Amino acid sequence: MRDVTQLGFGLGLRPQHYPAILDGDRTTAARVDWFEIISENYMVAGGRPLANLMAVRARYPMVMHGVSLSIGSTDPLDRAYLDDLKALAARVEPAIVSDHLCWTGVAGLNMHDLLPLPLTEEALGHVCGRIGQVQDHLGREIAIENASTYVTFAESTIPEWEFMAEMARRSGCRLLLDVNNVYVSAFNHGFAAETYIESIPPELVAYVHLAGHEDNRTYIIDTHDHPVVDGVWDLYAHAVRRFGPVATMIERDDKIPLFAELAEELARARRIAEAAAGPDQEVA
Amino acid sequence: MPLAEMERLFQDGLLGSSREILSHVNGNAREDAGAMFGVYRNAYWARLVESLAVDLPGLKALAGDAAFDHLARAYVARHPSTTRSIRWAGRLLPQFLAREAPYRDDPWLNDMAHFDWALAHAFDAADAPVIGVAQLAAIPPELWGGVTLVLHPTLDCFAVSTPVDVVRPLLLANPRAAFDRDRRRDGGLMVWRIGDDLKFRAIDPLEQDALAAARAGASFGEICETIAARVEAEAAAMRAAGFLRGWLEWGIVQDIGHDAPGSA
Questions:
Q1: pTM, two decimal places
Q2: Which residue among A259, B186, B213, B217 is the one 20 to 30 A from A244 at the CA level?
Q3: Do B81 and B115 lie in a common domain?
Q4: Is the CB of residue B51 less than 8 Å from the CB of residue B91?
Q5: A192 contacts chain B (CB < 8 A)
Q6: Does residue B264 surpass a pLDDT of 70?
């Protein structure tokens, strides 16, 4: 299996696109190198979701991306969830399994959101310990993504980019760098997005996310329901210049356009990456 | 403040039981902490209401947008999600409606919630083979009394008092479609999946009781006894046999258990 960084250019697998992927125009389908799945959508007992998943998997490499690991929660890790995640990984054989730097609930509840952590030494130690437990349980390396955030904590003492890099160094996980999320959080909290990118060691990055967002003028919400904006494309070019050729995918979770339209947006990512990488570097 | 305490305060803020978290978080140069924390708080409620609308489209069409929003928020307030996937967050909603005023008094809402949820369950419940009439015919008749059924894992069956199965497709096509709200039909609805196809079928009260008994593990003989309490004794076995044949033909029986010939 290829290293995740070499996968090329992918899309999030969405049920609306099954017909186009499996039965549609092969030229369009060939413009996508791999798919990322939302792990929880396929942690079901049977039926059409799993059948479609495996039909797509037979043709494309995959990455599993979850939203419920809750790596930052102070509740105990959900062992049943980890068992099911491991079982799905055995079935899908993904290039990597990823989730977010966040927590989703405490006291047994699930807020079904990617909630922010105070960026402190305590949180860093807590998260690193749990990543170690998850990697041991799954028997594989995982990648952790920077989430978009809307508040910061007065108690925070570590810039997010330093927290991410140190988390990866200490725990042995890799980073899923969401360039849109860097852009969103930079706007919301008033830091320079380029500083974030430049502080992430290239060797820690497993792959990159791109997505659209909702600009409310005084703050931005990470909605994944719009095309990628020019500012994020510019930041992506900056990231490719720093990280070199790295696997990249576009997430779209709402107002999902035709498959061909997303494939065209992905082609733009490929062109930007080729231009940013320069003539001497081959883009995966 | 310890991380665990901070997370508890944050969650309490989302649920609306405390505003203390606002003294620990920052907004930005344009919006204060309350406004920015509101992004999370609004998203929490909106995401769950939207998920319930996706999983219970018949209920939303029946109730109307505003009433559904009110109902869904009341449910979320009473039953904060404990499921790892939001897909299952509505699993207690039928019971919530059955218990809470004013919803408990509306049989249409209750039947629709059951029906929606049964369809959602059947959609991605476990795959399993089914057996047909031939497998039953291979069992000696003298052993039929001890036969038990392993019903298909996609199957749900529940009592209804309205023809909700007739009205649901009308409302999904047009949420303003007119129908007779005074109409009643006692019995049950069975919902299951064959391959990728979702199936449902209205059944009369007698069959509803028989299928409920089968789901509870009753033997064919015990199912006959259940029926015999409601119909003439000599007709009970015939009715039960008819039900069993139908269940086999519709594809809701995964397997049959019975004692081996000669066993005690």
A1: 0.93
A2: A259
A3: no
A4: no
A5: no
A6: no
